[in-house]
Amino acid sequence: MFTFKRMAVTAAAAVALTLSATNTASAADFVINEHATSSDAGGCGVVGWSQYGDVFRFMDLCKDGKGVEVEWTTPTKGLASTSDAKHTHNYTGGYTGWEYLGSYDLDFPEGACFYFRAGLEDNGSHVANTYSSWTLACA
Predict the structure, then answer these.
(1) CA distances (Å), 113 to each of 31, 138, 139, in order?
(2) Choice between 123 and 21, residue whose per-residue pLDDT is larger
């Protein structure tokens, strides 16, 4: 049941990513090339990566008071690895539903690749055991 629930949340997030991208005035601004969902039992956090503009976008799907956290490795033009140096950013703007309301703009070198994953945070601290699997993305 737990695995099915996680798969259902991931599939729903992928649909939401597509819908949120196509329901905007400038869909190119919101193209999500990769996505990751948190691995907590409720699937509360979704992080999307947009190669266009080098932007992480956030969805907070639960009204639990926790924020969504993205962790990513240092971008490299070489072979990206999950053991590379890691960085984090927290979205603490509150419940978004199935819309990307939070974003974090970065400026990665063109063609640089990295891994990222979604998790949850509570009052500035990572919530243990909520990270998703690593997802490879490129700028």
Answers:
(1) 17, 4, 6
(2) 123
